[in-house]
Design brief:
Elements: H1 6-11, E1 30-36, H2 43-53, H3 59-72, E2 74-81, H4 82-94, E3 98-99, E4 103-104
Antiparallel strand pairs: 1-2, 1-3, 1-4
Helix pairs in contact: 2-3
């Protein structure tokens, strides 16, 4: 007597012996790091902090962000995985920048 495979039983409409587990991949949550405008920090200090702590930010981009912070009251300076966002948020706050609470992106 030959062996019947699970696929053959399922194809024939028979009972399912094993249920497949669906693996749902969820992306790691991203968070926004937002710097707020204040009357304490200079443009140069904000630029220096952004260049020092936010990966890939060059001075020209940091100046653009500093002007946006001044003109609009805030700017998203980085967006990405939560752990990195927490680190950058803490580093910028430790330098005296006024930070908005982290929020999901």
């Amino acid at each position: 007597m030959g062996q019947t495979t699970l696929k053959a039983v399922q194809a024939a409409g028979g009972p399912t012996a094993v249920k497949e587990r669906l693996r749902i991949s969820r992306p790691y949550p991203h968070f926004k790091v937002v710097v707020l405008d204040d009357d304490v920090n200079t443009f140069q200090h904000v630029v220096n902090c952004l260049v020092r702590y936010i990966p890939g930010i060059i001075p020209d981009r940091a100046w653009e962000l500093a002007h946006r912070i001044d003109a609009e009251g805030s700017a998203v300076v980085w967006c990405g995985p939560q752990e990195q966002a927490e680190l950058y948020h803490q580093q910028l706050a430790a330098e005296g920048l006024t930070m908005a609470p982290l929020e999901p992106a």
